[in-house]
Amino acid sequence: MSRWFDTIPEAVQAEFVQEKLGALLQSSAYSQELLWTLQVYLESNGHARAASKRLYIHRNTLSYRLSRLQTILGCDLKDLDTVIDLGLALAFYRKNPLLHGGEEDVQIETIAPIS
């Protein structure tokens, strides 16, 4: 998939990231926490129980964060097109140094997988 990413101009990637995640791209700790929550939730295929375990938080806390994400981003995390767009935007965000102050291959947060 990275070969496919390489064919998309960085300016287009940046515009897409801004469109989909713009409200979360502030440097505040809360915004970074919500980005991390979104990443883990998407990597957990939308399974709240698995995501809350990986985040080491209570399911109610995850539910609150997901609700805040939906409000801030103006989206529905149960909509497949939205989930695909957000996953792609997160991938572009992690890969594109122009979007996060010049650091290459930024990790929003490092998480150990649950076995």
From TrEMBL:
One Pfam family of this chain: HTH_30
Residue ranges of domain PucR C-terminal helix-turn-helix in the record: 34-91
Protein name: PucR C-terminal helix-turn-helix domain-containing protein
Highest taxon in the source lineage: Bacteria
Entries under InterPro entries matching the protein: CdaR-like_regulators (IPR051448), PucR_C-HTH_dom (IPR025736), PucR_C-HTH_sf (IPR042070)
